[in-house]
Every structure is written in C-alpha cells, then in structure tokens.
Amino acid sequence: MSWFPQKRESTWLQRACEAVLSAGPIPRHVAIIMDGNRRFAVKNSLAKSEGHVKGFDKLAETLEWCLDLGITEVTVYAFSIENFKRSPDEVNCLMELSRQKFARLLQEKDLIHQHGVCVRILGDISRLPSDLQELLAEAVSISANNKRAILNVCFAYTARDDMCMAMRDVADGVKKGLIKKSDISEYLFEKCLYTSHCRDVDLLIRTSGEIRLSDFLMWESSFSCLAFVKVLWPDFSIWHLYAAILHYQRNHGKIQIARQNNAIERQRLQRESDLKCVMEEEEEDKSGVNTKDNPAGSSGKDSPSGVAEQKNVQSRVQHYKEVREKRVEEFLRTVHSKRKQFWTSLALSPSDVTLKPSQSVSVC
Ligand code: FPP
Ligand code: MG
C-alpha cells in the first residue's frame, strides 16, 4: 500500500462525530505505539511478516485520519532498539518492509509535497543497514521544507538510548567549555533529545491492550494524555481514534494545569540557579582580585547602601541570565548543526538508493 491511500468518503456518522469532537480541543501531536501486529497475524492465520505489512497499511490510513482531524504532528514507534533481539528472520523482514516503504515514499515525492508532510526519523540510525540509512536520509531531505504536517518515525529508537545520547552531548559541551555544569536544566536536556524540534506530545495511544510505554517517549510523555486501547494495531479503526480524542478532551484541563505548573517550577529553579551562580561569582571576586566595586561586608541589608547592593545583585542576575541564555543557545546550535550535517551527508551519499518504479521488493 502507498503512504497516501485512496481516500474513502466519510459516512454521515463520521462527519457527525468529527463535528462534535472539533467543538473541543484537538490534540496537535499524537504519538502511537503500534502494537499487536504478530498477534493479529496469528489470529488471522497469516505469516508474522503479513502482520507487519497490515500494520504499515493501518499506519498510512491513520495518518490520513489525523490530517483530516487537524492533528498536525504524529510520532510512531516503528522499530525499537529492543526489536533487534527478535529472530534474524523477523528483523530482516522489518528492514525489508521499511526499505520497500521508504523507497515507495521517494517515488511518491509529489504526493508528499501535495500533502505537505515533513518526515523526520528519530533514533540511532547508525545501527541500521547503510542502504536503509540512505533511504531514510533522502526521505528526510526531500520533505524537510513541508509545513502542513510532521511525521516522526522512531526507528532504532528507545527513550533510554535517546537520553544517553543527549547526556553524552551535554557532557561533551561541559568538557569543551561550551556550557557550564550549572547550565544543565530540563530545558537544555530536552533540546538535546531527538524530539527537540517536536511540539509537546498531547496524546499517546498504545494498541493491543498492553499498559506500558516500552521505552517510548518517556521524557516527552510526562504531561501527555495516555490512551491504552485493547484492539490489535491492524484492527485499529477511526472509531478508536475518535474515542482516544474524546479521552484527551476529558483530561485536557488537568493536563494543561500540570504543564503550566511545570513551566512555573522550571522558571523558579532557573532563577534560583542563576542567583546561586552570581553569588558564587561574587564570593570568588571577594576572595580574589576584583574587590574594587564590591567591597566585602560593605553594608547591612536595610541600609541605603544595602538596598543599592540588592539592586546591584538583581542587575547582575539579569546580566548572568542573558549571558547564560546566549551560551546555551550557541551550544544547542552546535549540537543541532552536527546532527543536520550527519543527515545531509547521508542524503548526499553517492549510491543510488531509490528503487526504480519497475523494481519491486518482496517482503520476507
Ligand atoms: C509491534 O507489534 C510492531 C512492530 C514492532 C513494528 C511496527 C512496524 C510497522 C507497523 C510498520 C511500519 C513501517 C514503516 C516503514 C514506518 P509486535 O510485532 O510487537 O506484535 P505483537 O505485540 O502481537 O507481538
Ligand atoms: Mg508487541
């Protein structure tokens, strides 16, 4: 099946449901754990590989539903690093299916642009066969400027691996003196994750009845609405999506409050950290050479000179904040440009990775 299947006419009942749902908040970013492909295969006396093919078909259908509903960003768990532990046959089958589907996506270039979909791959793709890496990079490259919707495909991904990678980048930044240890914050850390360019995940859906995250978007889903659906992924229908959105709408208020509280707490922690850094600098100044402007123990807190000193501290904190923000943004630019370079160099790779329309690939 294509990534952009023939659109089916909605029924009056679907239109009615959509009208009701669109009166409430629609999640802008939906993440999906597409679980249950193999159980679907067993249930329907199919080969495992067929279960995954049906899983892809359902993904294509679901993306269309999301676009129609105004969901502008979708993130899917296509291949976990843990999946490498499956039998070599199944791993090869999933690699082959991905090769075939991404080659198809490249053939459907016009359709990607028509739908305005930007494809991003999140994960450690260096673990994948090099021809597949190049295909993925090309899909990312040709769709990079599309603005209507974003599809994030988590491939060779786990949240713990992502966090380790981010930690390495941060540690490297400290070691090279690009940032200070005190610059490390929730903000800095999440801007080093694969999802740094994503908006907040509003709704996370997992199919197949399993009630766990399986190492998917663990950081990003802290303030998301979670919907665990019993149906196996290839059996997922638009009605399950409507039900998940309704569940999101019922919990929307509480999620917003939790997000706001977290934002306030982050700001408080950051202010505290900046003040601590300024105080530490001041201590260093006092014990060191620069005592001219800030003589040690110069005044009481409430005396005129004490008030002046407090103002002086405030302006130093403000100055420190500006310098820190500049330092952090510069560091993040370095991290992101390194990653961009990695993708660009892969996409420019000399081998011809796109399949000719006449070449068909049989899956497994
Ligand atoms: C989980 O079901 C599904 C996967 C591990 C693979 C998901 C992949 C697809 C739906 C295809 C996507 C392809 C592209 C190109 C994006 P499972 O295998 O764990 O099934 P089970 O839970 O019944 O054992
Ligand atoms: Mg499973």
From TrEMBL:
Residues 288-302 have a biased composition (Polar residues). It catalyses: n isopentenyl diphosphate + (2E,6E)-farnesyl diphosphate = a di-trans,poly-cis-polyprenyl diphosphate + n diphosphate. Residues 279-319 are annotated as: Disordered. Pfam families: Prenyltransf. It comes from the Eukaryota. It is an enzyme of class 2 (transferase). SUPFAM superfamilies: Undecaprenyl diphosphate synthase. Keywords: Transferase. Its EC number is 2.5.1.-. InterPro entries: UPP_synth-like, UPP_synth-like_CS, UPP_synth-like_sf. Belongs to the UPP synthase family. This is Alkyl transferase. It comes from Aplysia californica. The lineage of its organism: Eukaryota, Metazoa, Spiralia, Lophotrochozoa, Mollusca.
